[in-house]
Amino acid sequence: MGAVTPRSVLRYETWTLQPDREPDAEPVLYAMQCAMDGETSPTSKDFAEPQNWVLRHCGQNPSHHTYREIITRPWRAWRQT
């Protein structure tokens, strides 16, 4: 009996990745985080709510001037045929 050699089949495919804008996609969500103390605003579909949180937070903490925007955006990937 001869030696058994493993064989592999490789198949290269092209994939596409893009933001999910389908009607059933999850919503884009926004939040803001204070870079000074790490406190984070509530997450919202409307950016105005986290923005208002920043204004309240810096009003209560006058030395907190730096913030991070956090965006949660749904993406989808599919194989091109």
TrEMBL record:
InterPro entries: DUF7848. It comes from the Bacteria. It comes from Streptomyces roseicoloratus. Residues 5-80 form the DUF7848 domain. Pfam families: DUF7848. This is DUF7848 domain-containing protein.
